[in-house]
Write a structure and sequence with these properties.
Helix 6 runs antiparallel to helix 11 and helix 8 runs antiparallel to helix 9. The protein is mainly alpha-helical. It has a domain of 226 residues. The chain is built from twelve helices and no strands. Keywords: Cell projection, Cilium, Coiled coil, Cytoplasm, Cytoskeleton, Flagellum. Component of the nexin-dynein regulatory complex (N-DRC), a key regulator of ciliary/flagellar motility which maintains the alignment and integrity of the distal axoneme and regulates microtubule sliding in motile axonemes. Component of the nexin-dynein regulatory complex (N-DRC). Interacts with CFAP52. This is Dynein regulatory complex protein 10.
Length: 463
């Protein structure tokens, strides 16, 4: 593997330099609106031939292409996905120095291509990037723009005159040198590089395809560099096994297709039977439609007859209603005349009543005026008498206070006298009661003494 890598390293360097030059020509031509034929496409098409080892004859095939050939649809089974892991390289890191150099050169080429494809947008918007790029980069870009314009003008004149111009080669070399200088300045200024790289959305479709294909080429190179001869043999054996499985699956599919054809025949027979049933149903439906049409025709005739009879009856009713309307109109005119006469009588009566009401109102106003004058005089007298009453009430209040004091003294004296009389009556009654009790006591004592003497005398006589 090391010998194979060493043998192809120089060829790869030549290809990278050729690719950078073709990218410069494409960018310069696109900036001026002129598209030239570049060798980028041929580089991408012939990459496998450049990188093919000497002992190989067949075209190199990645395991992604094997996936597409063996199974176009997405692998759904987990076991099927794991079975393709054998196609992945066993080593995940490059061990040889030459392989690392190839990958680093490829990555540097991708970075430069990204910058070169964004240069037209940067040249169109130099004022926008002036602060971030710096004076050195701005000067280099302006010089590169001037050289590109001169080259486009010379190429245009050469195309019109159809005569080679010796200055074209010199200008092309100057453009190459200017581009190298611009890329060197960008490499020394990471901020400017990141700023310009952030404008990737402004890159054209062809430039995007170029960057994408270069990235795919890097992945392809990395896979081939990580794969050794023993792994390559194992992959070939595995691919042969997959081919045999594919043939067996093809035979199985053929058998299943025969079964499918038989099933289709059976289905067609079933469909023909059902079509016959449908035809019979359509026939019966046609007969039913005829019967329904006859029924509809008879129903329509009956309906027309009924409509005619209803029309005649409605006409007779309309005539009758018209006569009633005329009669009611005559009655209405008579009632209007009578009501007009009654209205005139009522209007006269109303006028008379209104006149009487107006007279009564005038009379009422006169009487009310007189009453108002009388009321004012009486009110005046009332106010005078009220003032006199207030003065009398003041005097009466003073007299009433004196009278209340006198009355209070008399009441107190009367109460005192009555209390003395009650006390005297109580004492008199008490004295009478005491005397009565005392007299009774004396009488009882006297009577008791007399009874004692009589008893003693009786006892003596018996003896």
């Amino acid at each position: 593997m090391v010998i194979w890598v060493s043998g192809k390293f120089q060829a790869f360097q030549a290809l990278v330099s050729e690719l950078c030059y073709s990218a410069v020509l494409r960018v310069t031509a696109k900036f001026q609106g002129v598209f030239f034929t570049t060798i980028a496409g041929s580089f991408l098409l012939n990459t496998k031939a450049y990188l093919r080892p000497t002992m190989e004859v067949a075209v190199l095939t990645t395991h992604q292409e094997v996936h597409k050939k063996v199974k176009p649809l997405q692998l759904r089974s987990k076991a099927a996905k794991e079975s393709f892991k054998i196609l992945d390289p066993s080593s995940k890191k490059l061990s040889s120095l030459e392989a690392q150099r190839i990958i680093s050169v490829m990555e540097e080429c991708i970075k430069k291509t990204e910058l070169v494809t964004l240069l037209p947008y940067c040249l169109e918007n130099l004022e926008r990037f002036r602060v971030m790029l710096g004076t050195d980069l701005i000067s280099a870009l302006q010089e590169h723009k001037r050289l590109g314009n001169n080259l486009v003008m010379l190429l245009g004149k050469q195309h019109e005159v159809q005569v080679p111009d010796p200055h074209v080669a010199m200008l092309q070399q100057a453009v190459r040198s200017s581009l190298k200088n611009v890329l060197r300045l960008f490499r020394c200024n990471p901020v400017a590089y990141q700023t310009l790289r952030a404008e990737a959305v402004t890159r054209g479709k062809a430039s995007q395809d170029l960057v994408r294909h270069l990235s795919a080429l890097r992945g392809f190179l990395l896979e081939k560099l990580l794969t050794g001869p023993a792994e390559e043999k194992t992959k070939n054996v595995y691919l042969k096994e997959i081919s045999l499985r594919h043939e067996k699956n093809t035979m199985t599919v053929t058998g299943m297709e025969d079964e499918l054809a038989l099933a289709i025949k059976e289905r067609d027979a079933e469909v023909s039977k059902r079509n016959e049933v449908i035809r019979q149903l359509k026939t019966s439906l046609y007969q039913m439609e005829k019967v329904s049409e006859d029924f509809q025709r008879r129903t329509r005739q009956d309906t027309d007859n009924q409509v005619q009879s209803d029309l005649k009856a409605s006409e007779s009713r309309c005539m009758k209603f018209q006569q009633e309307v005329n009669q009611l109109r005559n009655q209405l005119s008579q009632l209007i005349g009578e009501n007009q006469e009654v209205e005139m009588v009522l209007r006269k009566k109303k006028y008379k009543v209104e006149t009487e009401v107006e007279n009564w109102i005038q009379k009422y106003d006169g009487e009310i005026g007189e009453k108002q004058m009388e009321y004012e005089e009486l009110n005046k007298q009332y106010q005078e008498e009220k003032a006199e009453l207030e003065e009398l009430e003041k005097q009466f209040a003073v007299l009433e206070e004196e009278y209340s004091q006198i009355t209070e003294r008399q009441r107190l004296a009367k109460e005192k006298r009555e209390a003395q009389e009650r006390e005297l009556a109580i004492m008199t009654r008490a004295a009478i009661l005491i005397q009565a009790f005392w007299k009774g006591y004396k009488v009882r004592k006297l009577m008791k003494g007399k009874k004692g003497k009589k008893g003693k005398k009786g006892k003596k006589g018996k003896k």
